[in-house]
Amino acid sequence: MTVAIRCRQLVKVYPGPPPVEAVRGLDLEVQTGECFGMLGPNGAGKTTTIEILEGLLKPTSGSVEVLSRSWDRDEAELRQRIGISLQETKLSEKLTVRETLVLFRSFYRQGLEPEEAIALVSLTEKSRTRVGKLSGGQKQRLALACALVGDPELLFLDEPTTGLDPQARRQVWDIIRRFRDRGRTVMLTTHYMDEAERLCDRVAIVDHGKIIAEGTPRELIQSLGGEHIIEFSLIDGNGRAPQAELQWFAQVPTVHAVREEDGQICLSVGEPHIALPALLNRLRDSGLELGSLTTRHASLEDVFVSLTGRHLRDAETNRP
Amino acid sequence: MSQESVSSSTASTRRYYPLLELVAARVREFYREPEAIFWVYGFPILMTIALGIAFANKPITQVDVVVAAGPGDREVESLLTSHDDPKFQVRILPAETAWERLRTGKTELVLVPHTAGGGFTFLYDPARAESMMARFAVNEVLQGPKRIPIEEQHMTERGSRYIDFLIPGLLGLSLMGGGMWGVGFVTVDMRIRMLLKRLLATPMRKRDFLLGLMLSRLLFMIPEVLLMLLFAWLAFGVEVRGSLLSLAFIIVLGAFTFAGIGLLVASRARTIETVSGLMNLVMLPMWLLSGIFFSSERFPAFLQPLIKALPLTPLIDTLRSTMLEGTPLIVLWPELALLALYGTLSFAIALKIFRWQ
Ligand SMILES: Nc1ncnc2c1ncn2[C@@H]1O[C@H](COP(=O)(O)OP(=O)(O)O)[C@@H](O)[C@H]1O
Ligand SMILES: [Mg+2]
Hints:
The structure holds two protein chains of two kinds. Chain A is an alpha/beta fold. Chain A has eleven helices and 13 strands. The longest helix of chain A has 16 residues, at about 165-180. The radius of gyration of chain A is 23 Å and the shape is elongated. Chain B is elongated and about 90 Å long. Chain B starts with a helix and ends with a helix. In chain B, helix 6 links the parallel strand 4 (about 120-125) and strand 5 (about 150-155). In chain B, about 40% of the residues are buried. Bound molecules: adenosine-5'-diphosphate and magnesium ion (MG).
């Protein structure tokens, strides 16, 4: 397998005051033909990292290699071979979809016909519509088409589905999957755990400018010890939540980890069909009553929580 | 034939011209935005009308009068020079030169002494407010107890009126304003929208992009200039004495130069407020000094080198020479070279220091 992107000890400090250490020693290797995702909360340093890899930002220190080339020496060639969609770009509202793609196509030595790129993202019917009249999802697909029109080997996408409704997100995922299935490489960032889980072959979880875990979504979830989660709350005879004995729950068979937040007790469980009856027996024996009970598959969100003690969505507010 | 091109239906054979596409995109954006059309075409015209009215109504503090050399010229000179309110700036010049100064707006009124009888002919353009005021002010001073016979001769010959003088000035003004605002705003707007950064992420050549902005400005200017010249011709009978080709050359060069300066001014600005401030700062001295409404030669001598060095001055001077006197381009080369230098230098510096994100 060849390596599409490699970076070593990447550091980016935005000059202050106060200086912001957005990326603090990040190592990364993306293989050709995989869809690689950087998952992390807002402010984790994802955009900074991907823009350094895209050659749009200079790192403070560290080395970057893209398609075995370096940005310093081979910028012109690299630009021909990669496609980029930024986190926020407002394409010209007055141009039509087709005009926008003809413009972007004209910058590349070779690539798709604009019509092909439009078909690729299912915008053929909107070909003559002005960008300003497109929905959020359609705009995002147009941005993808602009990234694809140079027929790149490697695609960079910064938060490709942020702000989109579920259906629009699925359409974007399909486009990305089809690209990957042609043997091309994708590097994307996201703060949606389901996006990372369903779309990416491998995921790096980023927090505070560092990778804190890396692997396939499956490997990451298995690292919790159990692939299932049992969540429940308790009420005592008076209808109050009693002080739970967390160690006590850890004794339940196949439970690997226990945590509590807001009165909810959360167990990482290997085999729920064994753990659940045992848990219910114990509760009955000690005279405790269940307020609520749910079981589900563990997600990358649980991985993030177990690593940082914070949730993806509100991690930013807890920044030290 | 290679394996690649046989198997791949996606291999494109069509040729693309990025510079052309960039210009086309700009032109489409522009004509699909009615507000922008107003700002680029309507605003300079409204502004010049407003400025014109403001200038026309300003109280005269100093009146430039030329007495054509002849009998009694010294007497009139001393009579007028000793007068205080308004103050007269009086010169005695040969009739031919006096006429020329009047025609090019350097003076407001010419007195031609009568060979017999001690009277005068007042020579001026009644369409010019300053000239009218000068005519009455001078008349009041001259008319002592003994009435001096006065005759009037109006400059209504085409090419010799104030309006003929004013139109090239306004043309220069709108080439400056259009170029600077037209290029400056768009650039900063694209920067704010991160569109510049997105383009930077493609293999687009930076030079093509900046050149595209300037070329599209040249295209927008064509209707603007034609409209103005046509209006001046139909409404006032303003004609072009020199060759139309020479005039077109100067106009294109001027538009190019100010598009370049606009690009330079906008090359680092991050907000619309910054770029507006900078534009005004750059244009203000030219509004005041470059001779839009009256000849810049009326400013003190020590200011002249500065005034001559401002890019709008050579533009207006060459436009005037071509339109009013039909001066051939070859004679105007130093001014045209200065303009071209400004344009090229601005473009080169802008390319170097341009902020893409
Ligand atoms: N241009 C900048 N100047 C200063 N600080 C910045 C700049 N861009 C981003 N940051 C800071 O760097 C950190 C990482 O930001 P970013 O890379 O955008 O994270 P993410 O994309 O994961 O949300 C944040 O704390 C952010 O405030
Ligand atoms: Mg981001």
